[in-house]
Amino acid sequence: MFKVIVVGHDGSDGARRALAMAVDLAREGGGVRIVVAYVEQEILGKGGASPVPIAAEELETDIRRAAEGLSAEGLEVTVDVHHAVLGGPAPAILHIAHEAGADLIVVGTRGRSVLAGLLVGSVAQRLLHVSDLPVLVVPAPAAA
């Protein structure tokens, strides 16, 4: 059904659940390409954008290792890193999805309450508002 799935990944548990869901969909569909979208946010300040912190480099390395592991299992997985100064991750993920010719965007949630999500915002909620492509939001596990 899907040919290209873009997965928004920020290193969180929600992102790992989203990647696992995309892998399941790819295995069921066969011949599906997964593009892992990692967006580094830069904050604009005096003198331009802030430098990328070391933790972001480590996170990118971890995401690339996970993609390589999935590729070793026979899946077609690539990583697309995007640097966003304005607009946040959602528009950047959508841009990556358009560039990749995606049929679906998959993102996870962090398990925040609805109120916290509205106050703080979330990439998943923003994507649901701005995307012209289908977005699959993988929820956090239910609390026991």
How would you portray this structure in words?
The protein has 144 residues and is α/β, with parallel strands linked by helices. The protein has a domain at 8-86: HUPs (Rossmann fold, 3-Layer(aba) Sandwich), CATH 3.40.50.620. Helix content is 44%, strand content 25%. It has 5 helices and 7 strands; from the N terminus they run E-H-E-E-E-H-E-H-E-H-H-E. Strand 3 (44-45) and strand 4 form a beta hairpin. Helix 3 packs across helix 5 (123-130). The longest helix is centred in the middle third of the chain and has 19 residues, at 54-72. The N and C termini lie far apart (34 Å).
CATH topology of the domain at 8-86: Rossmann fold
The biggest sheet, with number of strands, parallel, antiparallel or mixed sense and barrel status, is: 5 strands, parallel
Please state roughly what percent of the residues sit in beta strands, choosing from under 5%, 5-15%, 15-25%, 25-35%, 35-45% or over 45%: 25-35%
Q: Would you list the SSEs in sequence order as H and E? A: EHEEEHEHEHHE
CA gyration radius, whole angstroms: 15 Å
What is the total tally of β strands?
Answer: 7
Helix content: 40-55%
CATH-level-2 architecture of the domain at 8-86: 3-Layer(aba) Sandwich
Strands across the major sheet, in which order?
Answer: 5-2-1-6-7
For CATH, the homologous superfamily of the domain at 8-86 is named as HUPs
